[in-house]
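Appendix B. One record, verbatim.
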Amino acid sequence: MKQPLIGAHTSIAGGWGKMFDRCKVIQSTAAQVFVKNNKQWFSPGPVTPQEAEEFLRRRKESGIPVYGHTGYLINLGATDPKNLETSLESLVQEIERAHTLDIPFLVLHPGNHGGRGEEEGLKIIRDGLDEAIHRTAKSKVKIALETTAGQGTSLGWKFEHIAWLLGNVKTPARFGVCLDTAHIFAAGYDLRTPAAYRATWKSFDKIIGLKKLLLLHVNDSKVDFASRVDRHEHLGKGRIGEEAFRLLMKDESLADVPKILETPKGEDLHEDVENLSLLRSFLTKS
């Protein structure tokens, strides 16, 4: 049986190469990273040739594909023009860093409309996405728009939001989708029973299209169904429950889609080990 691509969001503390040591500890076959400090607008400088060489060498040695996630400050729907431009410049820098590291795509939360309303907010985000791609025209790095929980004025909590953006950007080949299980559950898409699971994925395929799916964030939820709150929990210990993740791992249509944990963890990473072990167990159980 082909080895599934499963892993966790992994720290790059101590240097790019160190992340592969952490991957080995949790026995992951895929990883997600921030390409810079996620709580700062900008990195002090570009990725150095030495950093890139270490990362590319260790990635080749490990055979682990690595995907990127943008920083949390970026909001391409910002109402303040200065914040909007800073968000755009930050995203461009992250795309450039991902390009240097040969990371295929960056996961991005679409943004918040800030009271403008969904329709106007989506148009502003679309324009920001187009500008980011224009400024990085020589790069092949894609942007994976992430489904959100719908907290506050965030957009992306309806499949229709993502579909509209994908259908209205100027360079659709540079875009894809990341689906987060905790987010869509909080947004009102159920996964807890076989029937609900099938209905949700049927809706996703009809509205967005499975071929657009680049990555899955595999997280349970601390909060109730349709609560519109973003709180991740360990697999099987939240409101979604184990059955949804068993169905996910058994789903042949999603077999080739990388699956990444974004669940809480400590320094020894035992939580990642336990969550990944649970996912693997679903592949061997009838």
